[in-house]
Amino acid sequence: HPRRTRLIDALRAAKLPLQVSQVAQPEALRAYAGATVGFNCSLNGDLNLRFFEVLAAGGLVLTDALGADSGLDELAAQGCEFATYRAVDELIAVARDLLA
User: Which of 17, 18, 36, 100 is the most buried (most CB within 10 A)?
Assistant: First the structure.
């Protein structure tokens, strides 16, 4: 979706290592398991399948901050299993910190 595309473009412009591809779920799970950080951008501020897939594969998820109604903070530990961003600049800063 357009917001995800803008965020991916910003990560690329910041010269951060990023792999974007469309693959079947089994291959995606292998990629998530091998990644240092799994990027996620929700649609409409809801938890989505990618968040759970990255966690299930043993990865750390970098996802947009969601409202309290999403239940995000009840499902996983921020700073341990996931990190959040609210804006493009914060996304880039957090991604750099996680990769350092």
Answer: 18
Q: What is the pLDDT of residues 13-24, one digit of tens each?
A: 999 999 999 999
Strand order of the β-sheet with 61-64 is 38-39, 61-64, 82-85
Alpha helices in 1-100 (DSSP H): 2-13, 25-34, 49-56, 72-75, 88-99
Token output for 14: 């910041």
pLDDT (0 to 100) of residue 66? 92
Please check the confidence at residue 69 and state whether its pLDDT lies above 90: no
CA-to-CA distance for 1 and 59, rounded, in angstroms?
23
* pTM score, whole prediction: 0.91
Q: Which amino acid is at 73?
A: D
